[in-house]
Each structure stands twice: as C-alpha cells, then as structure tokens.
Fold this sequence. Notes:
alpha/beta
Amino acid sequence: MLxxxxxxxxxxxxxxPVGSPAAPRATDGALSQAGLDLLTFFLDDGAAGGELDTxxxxxxxxxxxxxxxxxxxNRGKCxxxxxxxxxxxxxxxxxxxxxxxxxxxxxxxxxxPETMRAFVEEAAxxxxxxxxxxxxxxxxxxxxxxxxxxxxxxxxxxxxRAVGAVFDFACIDQATQSCLATxxxxxxxxxxxxxxxxxxxxxxxxxxxxxxxxxxxxxxxTFDGEACLPSLVTPYVLPHAMLLDEDDTFLASLEDPxxxxxxxxxxxxxxVLQARDNYGGRGQKVWSATVHDxxxxxxxxxxxxxxxxxxxxxxxxxALKQVQVRARIQSCSAQHASAxxxxxxxxxxxxxxxxxxxxxxxxxxxxxxxxxxxSICRLCGTGSADVDGVHARSCFSGGRRTRMHNALRDVxxxxxxxxxxxxxxxxxxxxxxxxxxPDISYVRDGTTVVLDVAVTFPLQPSNPQYxxxxxxxxxxxxxxxxxxxxxxxxxxxxxNEPNPRExxxxxxxxxxxxxWR
Length: 517
C-alpha cells in the first residue's frame, strides 16, 4: 500500500490503524533511508508513505532490489492512496488508485469514519451470511462449536480493534442470537441472552457481545500500537500520529455510552492515558474481564429481583429460588464444568451431544424451562415434574441416578486402568466389613486408595443447604456432600483397620452442572 503525504509542509498520512490484526515491523536501514515518512512491512504486506515523487523513486528502487534476488512485485495487487486531483508520476503508473479517506491495510479500513462504516457494514453482512450457513448444518453441537470459534465475535474482533465505536456492532450480536436460536431451537429472553454472552468461566456460553466490546477493543489496540509507532514513522511524523485527543475514532470509543456503567474500567483506561502503561499489551483482556465480572454481578441481582417482582413465589419459596439461581450459575462457572459445551475433535464421537440433548443442556445452563407445562412424573407417579427439570434431576425412581453414577465410575476406572493402577471396581477391600465396597480401589506405594464416586444435584428442594453452599462458591454443593456424607462414611471404617495410615479415602463428587469438589 502506498500513501501520498498531503504536502511538504504538512505531516504525512498517519500510519495504518494500530488495531491491525498483526503488528508490522520497520524495514531494514537501507530501505528506511529513502526519504519516506512511513515504511512498514508484515511478511509480504507493506505500507509506504510520503510525497508521490519520493514514493515513485522508492518503489523503483524496491523493484530493482527484488529483481536482483529473483523476485518481482505484482503491481496488480498494489494500492495507491492519493489526494483528489493529484498527478501520478510515471514510476507509479499502472497501480490502482484510491482516495486517501478510503485506505485499507491488512484487512481493516483506515480512512474516514464514513468509509470505515461502509467497509465494516459489508464485513458484517458477510459475517451474518457465515452464521446462516453454520446454522443450517445438521449436527447442532458441531454448529454451536463453529459459531463460538469461527463466527460472530471472533470473526470481527480485528475490525473492532480498528474502528471501535464508529460502527454499531449490535447487528453481529443479533445475528449470533438468531443463529443460536436456529441451532438449538431456543428463543432466549433478555436475561438468558445476557448470560449466554458471558464467558464460560462465568457460567455463560462464551458468545461475547460485540457491541459491548468494540470500544474497549479499539482503545486497547490504540495503546498497543502506540508503542510501535516510533519504529514505523519518522521523527517528524511521530508527534502528529500520537495526538489521541484529536483522533475522532479514538474519542468516539472513549466516549461510548456503553462504558459509562463501568467506572472501574474507565478509571483503568484513564490511568493508561496518563501513564501510557497498557498492562504489557493485555489491556483488552483486562478491561473485558472487568466488564464481564461486573455484568454478571448486575445480572444476578436483576434475575433475583425479577423473581420477586413476578409475584409467583413468596416467602421461603422465593428465597430458595433466588439461592438456586445463584447456585446454578456458580456451579456452571466451576473449572471443567463447561468441558462438554464445545466438544472435542479428538475425543470419542459419543461425547458430542445429539440436537435434543444439546437443547436440554443449554436450557438447563441458562435457566430456561425444558417443558411447556408441569406434569405428574411418569417414573414415581407422585411427584410434580416441574418445567425447570428440578424434579427430573432429583427423582429416585427409574434407575437414572444409578446409571449416571455407574457410568461416571466406569470412566474414572478406565482412566486409572490406563495409568496402570490396576483398579478394582466394587470389590471388598476392608478387613472389618464386607458391606462397604468402594466404587474403585487400588494400591499405590503401599497405600490402599479407595475412591467413592457420587453425583449430587445442588438444587434439590429436600436439601436446601447444598444450594446455599453452591451459591457461595463454584463446587460448593459437591464439597458439602463430600464432607457430610462420603468422608464420614469411610472415616470410622478406616480407623478400625489394623493399619489405618495405610489407607486413603478420596471422595470424587460432582454436581449435575459439572462442578467438581
């Protein structure tokens, strides 16, 4: 890309946007002494800026050097950005020209706010088409994985870093929400979508909001690129390229009203403005994490307050439901609780969920109903099968809980077997009783290790203390169950063994949302 400087007495055209997807590097000393105001290269992409005659002289020298080593410049892929009415020198003839306000470099627009909006609008339409194609795939779980890692937020993050709040990226969020609805058959309300847009570490689906992130991405990219400018432009141009308070695109992002509720983020940004210390290039990650944390706090408050305003529950029932909402989101936030969410290309194909399984799992994670109306449980015949699936996950009839336990036990035993631990499954190992048979046992360095597997449901109405513990921290219900039930179960047995120090009991407890002890 070749950029014309406006005039000998004016600063050169600013360098490519600091939000470019890759940081360019300066060329070697011989080339950078050509009298240019700007000269950068990234692999085979480059940008040179200066007066037209200087650009033509430099380009001719560049082609001569390339020819000396057997290379040639494809002028058909070059772009020349010039001021209106400029006379193109002979050395630059044959190169396609564009106005200075329509500069594009490394796949991002660098011109005026108007041309930026037009460019990103076309990119947004392309992203929406990609999401419609993904939504049409027959495998829902694969489609959801592609939506997370190949479309939506990730497909335009480089553009957000380049243009920020100049363009309203809400259309990408709407397309992402529509794609999720097509894939899963789930129409998310405002609260459910707000939760879905949170990172998986906070109990969401990781479908990040572009509209909420665009300003932060651009501000962070501006600071990231500022450190590169001294090596990209001449000392004459440098002061003009670093005037952030005169950059309309930067100011639009800094004044984005979506940042107003996040005072802590704005304070961190102001600190960077003053100290020019952008967390070692991690500004976007740091600020986005802060926004996500604060959004989850606000979402938890609004969801619990909405339960009270609805009037459907009163007193202790309302209090329990509010605790259960927090417990669900906390459990989904636990480490490894989201491992199922986006599959694994190298894992057993059976670990990918069917469309029906995926839809139910997503509904349970987002707190959406899994049935249109309550009914009588067909397994126990007495309990009310509520629309939220609470009874379905706590009913003792039908053998579902036993099958779940045995399946988890067998998986853990298989891992132990692969580790050459020679595990025994449900065999008597205690000398003082044969009634207690641990799920898994093996001997390691003279110590008999007994593993007891359990799956607990943190929202079960009969044990509200588990919901309270789960609401306090991720994995709280599993820890409470392990302490109250499993550890007490084996403590007395091991103490009565001839050599109790040669025994080790390990409860392996996980709740139904995937949070481990």
